[in-house]
Amino acid sequence: MKIESLNNPHVKEWCKLKEKKYRDQEGLFLIEGEHLILEASKKGVVKKILSSSIEVDADFYVTEAIMKKISSQKSIPKRIAVCEKLKEEKIKNRLLVLDAIQDPGNLGTMIRSAVAFGFTDIILSLDTVDLYNEKTIRASEGMLFHINFVKIDLNDFLKQIKKDYQILATDVKSGKKISRIVKKENVALLIGNEGQGLKEELKKQATDFVKIPMQENCESLNAGVAAGILMYEMSDLNA
Amino acid sequence: MKIESLNNPHVKEWCKLKEKKYRDQEGLFLIEGEHLILEASKKGVVKKILSSSIEVDADFYVTEAIMKKISSQKSIPKRIAVCEKLKEEKIKNRLLVLDAIQDPGNLGTMIRSAVAFGFTDIILSLDTVDLYNEKTIRASEGMLFHINFVKIDLNDFLKQIKKDYQILATDVKSGKKISRIVKKENVALLIGNEGQGLKEELKKQATDFVKIPMQENCESLNAGVAAGILMYEMSDLNA
After folding, report:
1. Based on the domain organization, do B101 and B17 belong to the same domain?
2. What is the ipTM for the molecules in this complex?
3. Which residues of B touch A (CB under 8 A)?
């Protein structure tokens, strides 16, 4: 199908997906570029593909002006896809639990590290930045299609899993070095908000406190880096 | 001194420092907020302080409109300082060598991790993003005042240090696990551009190749995270 008018109802609908409100309402989101479309196709969530080039496969052939209007990037991609949101699956044994992460780039980076280090699930607090934000998707480098996401009230969630999972939280003072922790089969790593850290009520649910040893003149690491180092140490690939 | 006009020559001069060209020309840069000003003061590089509040110490008391014009942040800080650029010092024994890092946030994050893990110097290629970019400074959380920077042609630099330093570069295929590397007293870690990786000519100068073990479905990590994990493993604090 060919579309040439910026006022076409489809175009308006796709543009709206740049806002969280409409993504939630429709259960859809946008991805841009070949790498992401390939990963999303493997996962089976691609609904429609748009392109301004008749040389590639697409459901809708649109003008460059339309691509530009829908795209969030500086240079327009070859193809944009409308995808269905990922379905929540049953959690497995290695969980990254994120409390109120606010920066979409940080969230994307953590998704990428979680897949790299063999985590099975990412649990997002209700106040974490939207998984389907275009910056999150971009920073994840397509890795969001390789892991299960659950969005839930973390307090309830942690109470529920506590008897079956080791729950690690960071504490720069009383924490044990992460390299010294004996990891159990079922493990959940809690990471807090970039500025505020982990909420006190969630910290209370931890079964073990860990830290990354640092020089004294440095108080903390970037949240994405800290999460990356902790997950790296928890990976089985290092032995 | 009190300034009320947006057209005051001082105001124009300070605003220009938001551009790299003028920072280079004047040898000056801007920092915002109390934490950064404290760190810069300890380092002795603060030249002038501006504020719109007469309740704090400053050299120039300006209007809120002027603060807003000079500031790069959404909410204006209590104070802004004009600082002298950092002087290059003689390099010591633990070097982070950055080739063409383009994202100022990534650079700031790496500075923060380098200080955390006891690195002594950061060597910047001539095409690395500006150290004095406001996003770099903000992401470094003031840690740029705790480490020595040298900006230099990396090819020349590596040839020069090669006989005295172990030079580590990453290679996902042939690299040894970073946790298994025997670190020497003098060591330099090479990190390449976010998209392109390390330039071939620089890779040739490496004495050891290392890797971070990852699951197969993940090709790479965010550059800041990868650098963080490598520096963490090279730190003496982990033992």
Report:
1. no
2. 0.93
3. 105, 109, 112-113, 115-118, 139, 141, 143, 146, 177, 179, 212-215, 217-222, 224-225, 228-229, 232, 235, 237-238
If asked whether residues A11 and A78 sit together in one domain, one would say: yes
CATH number at residue A190: 3.40.1280.10
Whole-model pTM over 0.80: yes
Q: Which of A115, A213, A215 is the closest to B238 by Cβ?
A: A213
Question: Does the residue B89 lie in any domain?
Answer: no
Which domain covers residue B100, as residue numbers?
A: 94-238
What is the mean predicted confidence (pLDDT) over A98-113? 96
d(CA A157, CA A123): 9
To the nearest whole Å, the CA of A221 is away from the closest chain B CA by: 6
Averaged pLDDT for residues B181-201: 93
A78 & A100 share domain: no
**Least CB-CB distance to A237: which of B116, B146, B214?**
B214
- B79 and B103 in a single domain? The answer is no
Residues B126 and B190 grouped into a single domain: yes
- End-of-domain residue from the set A32, A60, A84: A84
Q: What whole-number distance in Å separates Cα of residue A187 and Cα of residue B152?
A: 45
Number of domains present in the structure of chain A: 2
Same domain, B38 and B134: no
Q: Which of A55, A84, A113 is the last residue of a domain?
A: A84
Interface residues on A facing B, Cβ-Cβ cutoff 8 A: 105, 109, 112-113, 115-118, 139, 141, 143, 146, 177, 179, 212-215, 217-222, 224-225, 228-229, 232, 235, 237-238
pLDDT digits (tens, 9 = 90+) for A182-229: 889 999 999 999 888 899 999 999 999 999 999 998 888 999 999 999
- Give the list of residues 6+ apart from residue B151 with CB closer than 8 angstroms, or none: B88, B123, B124, B125, B126, B128, B131
CA dist B199 → A190, B13, B18, B102, B202 (Å): 37, 38, 30, 14, 5
A76 pLDDT band (50/70/90 cuts)? very high
Eight-class DSSP state of B178: G
Instruction: Determine, for residues B221 and A146 on separate chains, whether the beta-carbon distance falls below 8 Å.
Output: no
Rounded percentage of chain B residues whose pLDDT exceeds 90: 90
